[in-house]
Design a protein that fits this description.
The complex is a heterodimer of chains A (113) and B (113). Chain A has 113 residues and is mainly beta. Chain A is built from no helices and 12 strands. In chain A, strand 10 and strand 11 form a beta hairpin. In chain B, strands 2, 4, 5, 6, 9, 10 and 11 form a 7-stranded mixed beta sheet that branches. In chain B, strands 1-3-8-7 form a 4-stranded antiparallel beta sheet, with no helix packed on it. The chains are: A mainly beta (113), B mainly beta (113).
């Protein structure tokens, strides 16, 4: 069965530090992969997506993610975290022609000043 | 451009009452998705439509839940009768073809007393 695993439920980093959020997926075919961010009381905002081509994708707000087929991973990175990045981050895999999304459980990011 | 619009933003009602959540997708998008988000179960896909036709409703928890999409610009999710365990944030999302990501509304926070 298709699934998405985000091993870290909660991460705390200092402002200015680098960040990596982990995501592993289980899917038989080449997946469509997404990272979304959710601020409190808000909907989910798309950070970036991978469909094909270059395995390093750039997104909004200075985020990037790298697709590694051999590791079934799609980790999200940011070189220098800002306090406004505190939010919950969701990795998702899209299935089939309608892009039905399967979400991970999310990683809640806290940023210390 | 207007995003996905959901109403109401908040709903508080007593158990047994009928609840209707509304969604206006982004113009031109032909897929619409309803999700439920809870602390215990995370983000769950309830049902999705393509070209106003329900494609997969396997995520709908019970017969008390129903969804309709009478036209390309409007969808409803109805719970009748409502129960306290239905309390959650319900999100609507819309998308284009399979190469386009889903865009989420800000959600409806539903509390059943």
């Amino acid at each position: 069965a298709q699934s998405v695993t985000q091993p870290d439920i909660h991460i705390t980093v200092s402002e200015g530090a680098s960040l990596e959020l982990r995501c592993n997926y289980s899917y038989g075919a080449t997946p469509y992969l997404f990272w979304y961010v959710q601020s409190p009381g808000q909907g989910l905002q798309l950070l970036l997506k991978y469909f094909s081509g270059d395995t390093l994708v750039q997104g909004i707000k200075g985020f990037e993610a790298e697709f590694k087929r051999s590791q079934s991973s799609f980790n999200l990175r940011k070189p220098s975290v800002h306090w406004s990045d505190a939010a919950e981050y969701f990795c998702a895999v899209g299935l089939g022609g309608y892009n039905k999304l399967i979400f991970g459980a999310g990683t809640r990011l806290a940023v210390h000043p | 451009d207007a995003g996905v619009i959901q109403s109401p933003r908040h709903e508080v009602t007593e158990m047994g009452q009928e609840v209707t959540l509304r969604c206006k997708p982004i113009s031109g998008h032909n897929s619409l998705f309803w999700y439920r988000q809870t602390m215990m179960r995370g983000l769950e896909l309830l049902i999705y439509f393509n070209n106003n036709v329900p494609i997969d409703d396997s995520g709908m928890p019970e017969d008390r839940f129903s969804a309709k999409m009478p036209n390309a610009s409007f969808s409803t999710l109805k719970i009748q009768p409502s129960e306290p365990r239905d309390s959650a944030v319900y999100f609507c999302a819309s998308g284009g073809n399979s190469n386009q990501p889903q865009h989420f509304g800000d959600g409806t926070r539903l509390s059943i007393l």
